[in-house]
Amino acid sequence: MNGGMIRGAQRMQPSPQTNPAAPARIPISGCVIAHNEHDRIADCLRSLAFCDDVVVVDSGSTDGTDRIARDLGARVVTNAPFPGHKEQKQFAVELARHDWVFCLDADERASPALVARVRELAAAAALAGAGYEFPRQNYYLGRILRFGLHVPDRKLRLFDRRRARWGGLNPHDHVEPAAGAAVARIDAPIVHLSYRDAAHHRATRAKFADIAAQALFAAGRRATTYDRLVRPPAVFCKSLLLKLGFLDGWRGLAQAATSAHYVWLKYRRLAALADAAQARAAAAGQPPSARP
């Protein structure tokens, strides 16, 4: 009887040929843009070691960034002069070998918890929709900012390039999903090492203000009195008070002040661009109605 039961049980087992096929793992490409990031590129790429393919687009580094990336197994492509943040990032995405891409800047790292979750989704072939956004954990002068203007700072960085692409206004680029495409959230963070030191923050702020002013000017935007007098203190109050930046201590105060200064600097430079354009038009003899 026991033997009959066993034989019956054996007959009830599905044959290997009738087992449903396991879902195929979804491959992912890592995409990074870099320029003179020799001190930060290695940790960024190590955090992308779970990717099936990693491409680094370098805009002409002179400090060995490209060599370090190659030594860590990345494909390195030089695209110089730098065409702009969103343009360079989209260029990297188009070089990827796989449709699902994970994009990081050189000063960012995928946290271990984020890597584990993405691996799980890829292994189960469960990546879906246009992509996934994560909070960005911003370090400022040695400590994580837990409050203020840029918390939780969610970023869409894992996406299907057939359903999303880089857009926005430089230097504040972002990934734009196709109309109607779903975006999900993963709670694990990207780690962002914002600035090396206070001097680096000042230099970056000035550079980004220039880029932003030029992009706004090219888009037909002009600075108003409201932009120059109201926006900066509004940003300061929002970051320090409404977003509770004061709970981060002096770092929260510094972040609020520098954010307000960036806004003031951006619109001051936008106004200067408009003044210069009007001066050129006047010198060329154009009537006021034809001036920019």
Care to give the gist of this entry?
With 292 residues, the protein is an alpha/beta fold. 41% of the residues lie in helices and 22% in strands.
What this model shows, in words?
The strands form two sheets. Strands 1, 2, 3, 4, 5, 6, 7, 8, 11 and 12 form a ten-stranded mixed sheet that branches. The protein has a two-stranded antiparallel sheet with strand order 9-10. Helix 6 runs parallel beside helix 9 (250-283) and helix 8 (231-242) packs antiparallel against helix 9. The longest helix has 34 residues, at 250-283. Mean pLDDT is 90; it is low at 1-19. The chain contains nine helices and twelve strands. It folds into two domains: 28-193, Alpha-Beta Complex (Spore Coat Polysaccharide Biosynthesis Protein SpsA, Chain A), CATH 3.90.550; 198-279, no CATH class. With 292 residues, it is α/β, with parallel strands linked by helices.
End-to-end distance: 96 Å
Helix content: 40-55%
Would you count the extended β strands for me?
A: 12
Regions with little confidence, pLDDT below 50 for 5+ residues: 1-19
Give the key terms:
Spore Coat Polysaccharide Biosynthesis Protein SpsA, Chain A; alpha/beta; 2 domains; 9 helices; single chain; 292 residues; two-stranded antiparallel sheet; 41% helix; ten-stranded mixed sheet; 22% strand
List the helices and strands and how they pair.
Elements: H1 2-12, E1 28-34, H2 41-46, E2 53-58, H3 65-71, E3 75-78, H4 85-95, E4 100-105, E5 108-110, H5 112-123, E6 131-140, E7 143-144, E8 154-160, E9 164-169, E10 172-177, E11 183-185, E12 190-193, H6 198-218, H7 225-229, H8 231-242, H9 250-283
Parallel strand pairs: 1-2, 1-4, 2-3, 6-11, 6-12
Antiparallel strand pairs: 4-8, 5-12, 6-7, 6-8, 9-10
